[in-house]
Design a protein that fits this description.
With 247 residues, this protein is mainly α. It has nine helices and no strands. Helix 6 packs antiparallel against helix 9, helix 7 packs antiparallel against helix 8 and helix 8 runs antiparallel to helix 9.
Length: 247
C-alpha cells in the first residue's frame, strides 16, 4: 500500500495501462500532470487516498481468465458468462475509448490523420456491437436457456420466432466477421498499436485499451463461434432426434 502511495502516476500508467481507469474515474490527470505521486494527487484533489490505492491494488491483482475449459460448460451457463464478462466489458469500454479517441483525433489528428480514421472505424464498431449484443441477449440467448431447461425437464422448447437456431447463429457469425475485419483495419492503421515516439500517456493508454478491446473481442467471438453456437445447434438437433426415435 505504501509503495502505491509513493508511486508516480505517470509511471504507474506506463507500467500497467489498466490503472488509467482508476485515475480517470477520480479525474486525476495521468498525462500532463503524471509526475505527481498518488499521495500528492489525492491530497491536491481532496480524495481519500486509501480508496484510490485500494482500487489500484484491485486492478493490479486482476488476472485474465486464460486456461478456463469453457468446453465443459453448459450452453446456458456459457451464455450468461459471455453477457456478464464480455458484453459488459464492451458496453463499459465503448464510451471510454470513444472519449480517448475523440481527444487524440482532435489533438493529434493533423499530424497523425490515421487517428481520425481509427476513431471513425471504432464508432462504427461501437454501434454495430451494441445492436449485435442486444439481439443475442433478447432473442438467441433466451432460446438457448429455454432449450437447456426443456432438456432437463424432458420436454420440448417452444418454437422460436426465427424458425431454427441456425438462422440467428449464421447472422451473428457474419456480424462477427465484419467486426473482426474492422478491427484488423484499426490494427493496421495503428501499426499494430505502436505509439509514436512523441506520444503522450493518453496516446499509450488509448492504444493499449484498443488492443485489449480487440483481444477481448477475439475471445468473445471464439466462445460464441466455436463453443456456444455448436452446442446450441447440437442441443436443438437432439430434440429432433428424440422425436424421430419416438416415431
Amino acid at each position: 500500500m505504501e509503495n502505491l502511495e509513493k508511486a508516480v502516476i505517470g509511471q504507474l500508467v506506463s507500467d500497467n495501462y489498466r490503472t488509467a481507469a482508476v485515475f480517470r474515474k477520480h479525474r486525476i490527470d495521468f498525462c500532463c500532470n503524471g509526475n505527481r505521486t498518488v499521495e500528492e494527487a489525492c491530497s491536491q484533489k481532496k480524495i481519500d487516498l486509501s480508496t484510490v490505492t485500494g482500487e489500484l491494488e484491485t486492478v493490479l491483482e486482476t488476472k485474465p481468465e486464460e486456461g478456463t475449459d469453457f468446453n465443459t460448460w453448459q450452453p446456458d451457463v456459457l451464455a450468461i458468462h459471455i453477457v456478464d464478462r464480455h458484453h459488459s466489458y464492451v458496453a463499459t469500454q465503448i464510451p471510454v475509448l470513444q472519449a480517448y479517441l475523440h481527444k487524440l483525433a482532435n489533438v493529434h489528428g493533423s499530424s497523425h490523420p490515421e487517428l481520425i480514421e481509427i476513431y471513425s472505424l471504432f464508432n462504427g464498431c461501437a454501434a454495430e456491437l451494441t445492436a449485435h449484443m442486444k439481439k443475442e441477449e433478447t432473442n438467441l440467448f433466451p432460446y438457448i436457456r429455454q432449450m437447456v431447461v426443456a432438456k432437463e425437464n424432458d420436454t420440448k422448447p417452444h418454437a422460436p420466432s426465427f424458425s431454427e437456431v441456425s438462422n440467428p447463429i449464421t447472422a451473428m457469425m457474419q456480424e462477427h466477421d465484419q467486426e473482426g475485419e474492422r478491427f484488423r483495419k484499426i490494427q493496421a492503421l495503428s501499426d499494430d498499436y505502436t505509439v509514436p515516439p512523441e506520444g503522450c500517456n493518453t496516446y499509450r493508454v488509448t492504444y493499449a485499451l484498443l488492443k485489449e478491446f480487440q483481444d477481448d473481442l477475439h475471445l468473445h467471438i471464439h466462445l460464441e463461434n466455436n463453443i456456444l453456437f455448436p452446442k446450441a445447434a447440437a442441443l436443438e438437433s437432439s430434440f429432433s432426434n428424440t422425436e424421430a426415435a419416438a416415431l
